[in-house]
Design brief:
Blueprint lengths: L2 H9 L6 E2 L5 E2 L29 H7 L9 E3 L5 E3 L4 E6 L5 H14 L4 E5 L5 H10 L4 H5 L4 E4 L4 H14 L3 E5 L1 H7 L7 H17 L3 E7 L4 H4 L8 H4 L4 E12 L3 E11 L16 E8 L6 E5 L5 H6 L3 H9 L7 H8 L3 H18 L30 H4 L15
Helix pairs in contact: 6-8, 12-14, 13-14
């Protein structure tokens, strides 16, 4: 065949057929002669069944499940903060109340006779931890019972691995891991390596979550100002690994013995949105609640007050004078750039002040600037009375912590 013959053949319309997913000729094909399409394997899951992919049709036929919702550490309005069967994270500066928040969540579970594991890598100490739970009105009999409460202070990798293996069978309702900053060195891993954090997550945190446990990991904030805005110290892989909620803990009133204190909880990440939907939408990290601890009496009384619009201004700590200067601008400012130009402020100051000013205006007099004066930054309410959370958890809601898989003894109780 000459070159001209080849060219003429190439110009003629294609008449070859193709095979469909069962390997038979189809009507839309472009198969060349002597070539067959590889059929999609029929794996018995129906006409479109394929072991490589999820069966969406079966899911839709059975009805879609409701999105996960937090079930642990209830606020004054009845909504909870932490998810069961997920890795949750608390992070903040030293002495900000991170461990207090985690212990309050654990105490809520213990007082409902739910199983709790406390992994103390940060060396809070057995005596201090037990005393704290007793002060939080956890019954002594509950703490004595190893079927309900277990405490571990692992000194090496082998000890920690054994604790996690046992916990997978025991299946606690809540597991506090304090802290991630000490976890990685204990496993001889780097805090700044994404791959090595993934190894730690896979070895310790993930197995607990897969057992149906509400995992509460505690971590610290970096010292660098720019990095603090992003989240905890080290690799960004920490944030990606959170399957539940990541809460930033910021001191509002310093925690002191014999008095107490309070801290704002803000949402750094909420994968399922179950907590965020019940919070005011202001700023990049909306407020999830105000954790308050009253230690003026023998017992520790804690509560989580539901967030209010305007809490963001209190957390940022914008001076009243800055808000007053924005009030005085006519016409009102519309952007951070405009504030910077008109008041000659730096970017961070302009951004924080404008966000707080907008929040205050929308809370006090929506759409009416004439009365939008700023008497002062909102103050935090006094601690609520009562021991523990102000709302009694719904037993049916708490039962969501249970894993459906049977074991030798009932888990997550």
């Amino acid at each position: 065949m000459t070159t001209r013959d080849h060219a003429a053949q190439a110009d003629r319309p294609r008449t070859e057929t193709h095979t469909d997913h069962r390997g038979t000729p189809g009507e839309h094909g472009i198969e060349t002669a002597g070539q067959e399409c590889s059929p999609v394997p029929d794996t018995g899951g129906g006409e479109h069944g394929n072991s490589l992919y999820a069966d969406v049709a079966a899911l839709l036929d059975g009805g879609l499940a409701e999105p996960p919702a937090p079930v642990l550490l209830h606020r004054s309005d009845g909504h909870a903060l932490f998810y069961a069967g997920q890795v949750n994270l608390l992070f903040g500066d030293p002495e900000s109340g991170k461990t207090l928040v985690a212990q309050a969540a654990a105490a809520e579970a213990l007082r409902a006779s739910r199983r709790v594991l406390f992994v103390d890598i940060d060396h809070n100490g057995l005596n201090a931890t037990v005393c704290r739970f007793l002060d939080m009105a956890v019954p002594e009999d509950t703490l004595r019972d190893p079927h309900v409460f277990r405490y571990a202070e692992p000194e090496d990798k082998a000890h920690l691995v054994a604790v996690i293996a046992d916990a997978r069978q025991w299946r606690p309702a809540v597991a506090v891991v304090d802290s991630v900053g000490e976890l990685l060195p204990l496993l001889r891993l780097s805090s700044n390596s994404p791959d090595e954090f993934t190894l730690a997550h896979t070895a310790v945190l993930k197995p607990l979550a897969l057992a149906g446990t509400a995992v509460i990991a505690i971590d610290h904030l970096p010292k660098n100002t720019e990095n603090r805005a992003n989240g905890p110290t080290g690799t960004v892989a920490k944030r990606r690994a959170v399957g539940g909620v990541s809460l930033r803990v910021t001191v509002n009133e310093t925690f002191t013995p014999g008095t107490g204190g309070s801290a704002f909880l803000t949402i750094n990440k909420d994968r399922h949105g179950g907590l965020r939907r019940h919070c005011p939408q202001e700023g990049r990290e909306p407020t999830a609640g105000l954790f308050t601890l009253d230690s003026s009496s023998h017992d520790l009384h804690w509560s989580v007050k539901a967030p209010q619009l305007g809490d963001a201004a209190t957390i940022v700590g914008v001076p009243t004078s800055d808000l007053a200067e924005l009030d005085a601008l006519d016409p009102p400012p519309t952007s951070v750039r405009e504030v910077k130009e008109r008041l000659r402020w730096r970017s961070e100051r302009a951004s924080d002040a404008l966000r707080a000013w907008r929040s205050h205006r929308s809370r006090t007099f929506p759409g009416n600037r004439e009365h939008a004066t700023t008497p002062g930054v909102p103050r935090s309410p006094p601690p609520l009375s009562g021991t523990g959370n102000t709302t009694t958890p719904n037993p049916e809601e708490m039962s969501c912590i249970d894993s459906p898989q049977p074991t030798t003894e009932e888990g997550n109780t």
